[in-house]
Amino acid sequence: MSTDYDQYFTTSEFAKVCGVTRHTLFHYDDIGILKPEIVKENGYRYYSYKQFYTFDIIAVLKETGTSLNEIKEYIENQNTSHFLTLIEQKQQELVEEQRKLERMQRLLQGAVDNTHRALQVNCGEPWTEECEEEYFIAVRLSKEAGEKDHVRKIYGIFDYCDEHHIEYDFSIGSIIGRTNVEEGVYDPDYYCNKISYKHEGELLHIKPKGKYVIMNHKGSYESLPTSYEKLKSYIAANNLTITGNAYEYDLLSYIAVGDPDKYVIQIAIQI
């Protein structure tokens, strides 16, 4: 009995109907998720209209992020229970992905806001301000360790926040202990990232509510000691006393500007 090939799609026709390339269909054939119904001796391939439904299954599942291996497994064991399990799993993955995208949007908006703020602030002039309690995820730095370990510490903050689903500010900050500030040692004791709520965890650092002397430093990290000395002179001239840590917060850093002399770093010392 002869086959009426007019009732079948050639590879090019089927690819056009499905909105994919011929190479995609060849790949699906190779991995066994959608083989042509007929392959002639001369190598010509033909697809039936029923195979469009198989392709539609592949397209829908692929759109949800399902891998081709998972799709193949589903097609080979196609039933309602398997379908629900697969779709509910992908639904949960999409919810998680949406959460990550929303978090990234807030992170980027914070970076935009900080950058605009950095372009408008006055630098080099101290002032006093009453500040509310703030929260940070902070890691202590070892004085004996080198820069390599410091990089690991920074990424340790990121990993910790991701693991505990904590949203953090775009910029890295530093904390210098009171004693070191008073003695003129301005190397960071901690690296930190600001967070929006009081996370109950081992890396939580609380910046106390109270009065701070604040100044925006413009210049490289290496030039920060000059601004610290200016802040300490201001504190002494106004009969104030250092009572807590110093906090550094990047407003404009290496991420947004190539010239270190154009960095803007806000310093706040508790008094």
From TrEMBL:
<dbReference type="InterPro" id="IPR011256">
    <property type="entry name" value="Reg_factor_effector_dom_sf"/>
</dbReference>
<protein>
    <submittedName>
        <fullName>MerR family transcriptional regulator</fullName>
    </submittedName>
</protein>
<dbReference type="Pfam" id="PF06445">
    <property type="entry name" value="GyrI-like"/>
</dbReference>
<keyword id="KW-0238">DNA-binding</keyword>
<feature type="domain" description="HTH merR-type">
    <location>
        <begin position="8"/>
        <end position="77"/>
    </location>
</feature>
<dbReference type="InterPro" id="IPR000551">
    <property type="entry name" value="MerR-type_HTH_dom"/>
</dbReference>
<dbReference type="InterPro" id="IPR009061">
    <property type="entry name" value="DNA-bd_dom_put_sf"/>
</dbReference>
<dbReference type="Pfam" id="PF13411">
    <property type="entry name" value="MerR_1"/>
</dbReference>
<dbReference type="GO" id="GO:0003677">
    <property type="term" value="F:DNA binding"/>
</dbReference>
<keyword id="KW-0175">Coiled coil</keyword>
<dbReference type="InterPro" id="IPR029442">
    <property type="entry name" value="GyrI-like"/>
</dbReference>
<feature type="coiled-coil region">
    <location>
        <begin position="84"/>
        <end position="114"/>
    </location>
</feature>
<dbReference type="InterPro" id="IPR047057">
    <property type="entry name" value="MerR_fam"/>
</dbReference>
<dbReference type="GO" id="GO:0003700">
    <property type="term" value="F:DNA-binding transcription factor activity"/>
</dbReference>
